[in-house]
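Worked problem 6 (solution included).
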Amino acid sequence: MIRRGGPALALLALAAASPVGAEVIEATDSGFTVRHARTVAAQPEAVWAALVAPARWWSAAHSWSGDAANLSLDPRIGGCFCERWAAGEAEHGRVIHVAKGRLLRLAGALGPLQGEALSGTLTVQLTPESAGTRVEAVYVVGGHARFALREIAPAVDQVIGEQVTRLAALFPEGG
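Solution. The predicted structure is:
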């Protein structure tokens, strides 16, 4: 969650500095879908335990407080993916679907998108595979914003991709 400047300007700057993500599934002026998937060398139960502990893997650079230790996630319907620090609090998402060890779905416009009239749905699915677990994150955003969502989709794609990569890094090969 980029904390300085206007949301559109900050995300556009990130998009300009980053290569266009190949995982942007679709993008229009009113919405977009991004997807990232990785296979990790761990069983779904271990990946689930890490997934619901975002302080372990979410990038501090994409938090409001600048400290990932302030993040928490309550993995039950209505549970909060929240950030709490001395100077404030932020709800990043609200849990809307849980299938323990298999699927976690959050409703929320992440970061600077939160200041717009947008809806976002982040679905993280864990699927057993012979090599471990496939982690797939799909983030769908739509609604009204003061900028064309098509233009910021690559930046959001990069941010979601970074989080999936950080989660996967908790499970090195053979670890």
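Discussion: Helices lie at 7-17, 44-51, 149-168.
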